[in-house]
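User: Hey, quick favor. My workstation is busy. Could you predict this chain's structure for me?
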Amino acid sequence: MTDPSPERRGPPLLHDPAPAFRARTTMGDRALADYRGQWLLLFSHPADFTPVCTSEFIAFARAAARFEALGCALLALSVDSLFSHFAWIRSIHAQFGVKVPFPIIEDPSMAIARAYGMIAPQAPDAAMVRAVFVIDPEGIIRAITWYPMTTGRNVEELLRLLAALQVSDAHDVSTPEGWRPGDAVILPPELTPEAVFAPQAPGADWYFRTGPVPQGRGKGR
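Assistant: No problem, here it is.
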């Protein structure tokens, strides 16, 4: 494994370039650059053979085709070795009938985990938090979630988050609380005196307008 970019200091934040890396995985070597041009969900787990992680990997494996349909690859990571990763995914297949279809990075030196801030300096051991980094096709971090070791993530929410980011990019809109694909979106306000003082329908105002996804707009990401 090659270390991530050495000039990076502190954990990355939203809209930062994702720290580069190359590492061994259960499906051969992988580098961040391999995923340029598509979305990537990079997620860590504290350790192999733990029950919360097992429940998550089963859910991610079952939803892998739905992520693929959104143009998003899955890439997992922990500090465990490839030997441990292979033994664990073999157990998941044997005991639960689920094949894990995405690579799992081994990070025994913790170089990638530390570059992404997955292991806190005050952590009592090398077990990582449940971190998720949603990285866009240009290699920019667009969303970050953190969960403690005791709490499993919600794969449905991560699919919803990914879809919301994509519709915002494609159509220059925002998404309201609980938005799901097909729901109304929040339209950009029209910043003119005429729009501000125009009569509004109940449940709306000049700064809060919802409607179907418009066509022919967006940032071109």
